[in-house]
């Protein structure tokens, strides 16, 4: 009797939570905290997924520098401090200080400083090497041996097939030994003097300068106020999004954000679209380029798949089969286009993208089940968040169609209202006693509810902007909305560091599980904005403060997920060893949360903007400047009493009540 063959184990991703990662897409540098690139693990300088340099070992006076500190200096660079005792001076004090600043673009500046009162002649050696492997091979342990080096004018070069790399040095080394991958200098350092060696690593021998990045479509907005952490978080979030920008290959003037590093330095339909949506207060350019790219991928022709935006499957935790990110992106497309119009999308770009949005709605209509819900995948479970995405797409899509003089707007509004009635009847699980019920995580294909409380329920509070500065109604009625707010703000879901992806008491809960317990900043941000808009300011403020405290703990660069261990006095959030950091949706979450405090509700086509700030002002007074509404700078101030005031706006905008 033949025994079943067990499924092949997926390769385990190497841990990256202790690495210092800097990115200027498509360039990437991954370093250990001591700064020496040893050639082991993921260490190296990469471009477009190719490792150009895996070893960069510095020795001074025949000694390894003693690492003192390694830290991020920004999204695209990292700094490493070390010291050296040459033995020329008695006592324990170091003679030479070493500062290394490594940029994602392949530039590294190594500065040596003489701390003593006497001159030093310092031998410096740098050993370089690379395997020219792609990141996937490195991550799975299949990188292969190092490639032999050759001398190149003022440095070394490597080539293997079509892959090649070159590292040049300034000043040129006194000696270069290709067989050992070794560059040598003899530096004369007067008392207190500093000397710098600059290394540049590129893909081609003719490359002399770092590769330039795409033009930035995001405004240089700021957040200032009583809590100084708000500005640090806002600025870091904006810089991380900037560092993840990649050029649209078919439209060089446009850009999208990669999902995250090191694992997903490319477009991910759902994540890239979510990030663009949450960054709309910084301008519509990112959303336009992302929508344009995804519109080109839409399935054409006729049939049930027409209009779908393809996307890979994504794990959904232990309770549900993987879901399709293409479904999420297809439903998000018309909603993001509609909201971008409210923020000031130019009419020409709207006309270009509107047909793709109509095709997305057509796909939704063609794929509804007999029960009126959307399965993901089909046949499969009817997920709670999928119905929320479909409802928002229908309402915002209907608003868009009506204002553009297209048909079917009323039909979509009627369908959304009917979906709400069906959802409340089928998805809501009534509770006994004080529990008050909860939404099911999903309906099985046979109609049975899956009674799990997950962060997916936060999407039931996520609405969207309609005309006149109004918010689209959600799937829940006021009573159920109040109950959901109570559930999201209670300890089983609120870890103290943000919203758990699954309540702590649910079967299968894992504080490190990316869909079964871990905090995912995007969901926390959606919950904060939704709770605030629905008037549940206490619950919104609790999640917001936890998320901000977590951001501070991570140096204001939130990873895409982190462990949801309950917060206790003196504790800190635990990093997930495989999480991308920076990640686009985690970075955009900071923008989304802080702008949600001001409750900015623009309607650029109507020439109005309304404010609905959070009344309890959880961070005290807050001023947001450098935002973009109707293509012009926009600034708003929220007082400690929760009163909002527009300080700068386009001349054509009027304040709506």
TrEMBL record:
InterPro entries: 6-hairpin_glycosidase_sf, 6hp_glycosidase-like_sf, GDE_N_bis. GO terms for biological process: carbohydrate metabolic process. Residues 25-200 form the Putative glycogen debranching enzyme N-terminal domain. It holds the Pfam family GDE_N_bis. SUPFAM superfamilies: Six-hairpin glycosidases (SSF48208). This is Glycogen debranching protein. It comes from Streptomyces venezuelae.
């Amino acid at each position: 009797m033949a025994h079943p063959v067990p499924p092949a184990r997926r390769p385990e991703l190497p841990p990256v939570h202790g690495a210092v990662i800097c990115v200027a897409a498509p360039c990437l540098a991954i370093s250990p905290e001591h700064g020496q690139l040893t050639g082991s693990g993921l260490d190296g300088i990469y471009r477009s997924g190719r490792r150009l340099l895996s070893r960069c070992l510095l020795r001074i006076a025949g000694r390894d520098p003693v690492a003192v500190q390694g830290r991020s200096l920004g999204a695209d660079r990292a700094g490493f401090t070390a010291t050296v005792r040459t033995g020329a001076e008695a006592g324990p004090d170091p003679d030479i200080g070493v500062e290394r600043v490594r940029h994602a673009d392949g530039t590294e500046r190594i500065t040596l400083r003489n701390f003593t009162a006497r001159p030093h002649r310092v031998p410096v050696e740098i050993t370089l090497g690379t395997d020219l492997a792609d990141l996937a091979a490195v991550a799975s342990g299949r990188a292969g041996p190092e490639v032999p080096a050759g001398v190149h004018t003022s440095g070394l070069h490597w080539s293997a097939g079509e892959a090649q790399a070159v590292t040049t040095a300034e000043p040129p080394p006194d000696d270069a030994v290709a067989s050992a991958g070794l560059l040598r200098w003899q530096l004369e350092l007067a008392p207190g003097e500093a000397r710098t060696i600059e290394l540049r690593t590129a893909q081609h021998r003719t490359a002399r300068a770092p590769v330039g990045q795409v033009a930035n479509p995001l405004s240089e907005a700021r957040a200032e106020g009583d809590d100084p952490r708000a500005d640090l978080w806002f600025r870091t979030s904006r810089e991380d999004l900037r560092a993840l920008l990649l050029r649209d290959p078919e439209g060089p003037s446009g850009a999208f954000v990669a999902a995250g590093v090191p694992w997903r330095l490319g477009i991910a339909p759902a994540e890239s679209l979510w990030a663009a949506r949450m960054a709309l207060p910084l301008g519509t350019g990112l959303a336009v380029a992302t929508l344009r790219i995804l519109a080109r991928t839409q399935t054409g022709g006729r049939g049930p798949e027409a209009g779908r935006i393809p996307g890979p499957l994504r794990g959904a935790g232990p309770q549900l089969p993987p879901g399709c990110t293409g479904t999420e992106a297809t439903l998000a497309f018309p909603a993001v286009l509609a909201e971008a119009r409210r923020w000031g999308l130019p009419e020409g770009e709207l006309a270009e993208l509107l047909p793709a949005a109509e095709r997305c709605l057509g796909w939704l209509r063609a794929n509804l089940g007999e029960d009126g819900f959307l399965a993901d995948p089909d046949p499969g479970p009817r997920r709670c968040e999928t119905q929320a995405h479909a409802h928002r797409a229908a309402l915002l899509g209907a608003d868009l169609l009506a204002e553009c003089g297209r048909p079917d707007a009323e039909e979509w509004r009627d369908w959304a209202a009917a979906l709400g009635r069906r959802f409340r009847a089928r998805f809501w699980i009534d509770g006994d006693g004080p529990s008050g019920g909860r939404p099911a995580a999903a309906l099985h294909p046979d109609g049975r509810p899956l009674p799990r409380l997950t962060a997916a329920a936060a999407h039931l509070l996520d609405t969207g902007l309609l005309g006149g500065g109004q918010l689209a109604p959600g799937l829940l009625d006021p009573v159920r909305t109040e109950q959901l707010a109570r559930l999201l703000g209670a300890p089983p879901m609120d870890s103290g560091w943000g919203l758990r992806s699954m309540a702590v008491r649910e079967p299968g809960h894992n504080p490190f599980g990316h869909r079964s317990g871990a905090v995912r900043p995007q969901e926390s941000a959606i919950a904060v904005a939704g709770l605030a808009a629905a008037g549940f300011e206490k619950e919104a403020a609790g999640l917001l403060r936890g998320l901000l405290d977590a951001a501070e703990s991570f140096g204001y660069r939130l990873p895409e997920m982190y462990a949801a261990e309950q917060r206790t006095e003196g504790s800190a959030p635990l990093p997930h060893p495989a999480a991308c950091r920076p990640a686009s949706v985690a970075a955009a979450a900071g923008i989304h949360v802080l702008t949600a405090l001001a409750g900015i509700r623009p309607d650029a086509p109507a020439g109005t903007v309304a404010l609905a700030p959070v009344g309890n002002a959880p961070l005290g007074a807050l001023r947001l400047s450098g935002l973009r509404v109707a293509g012009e700078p926009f600034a708003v101030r929220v007082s400690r009493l929760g009163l909002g005031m527009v300080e700068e706006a386009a001349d054509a905008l009027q304040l709506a009540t």
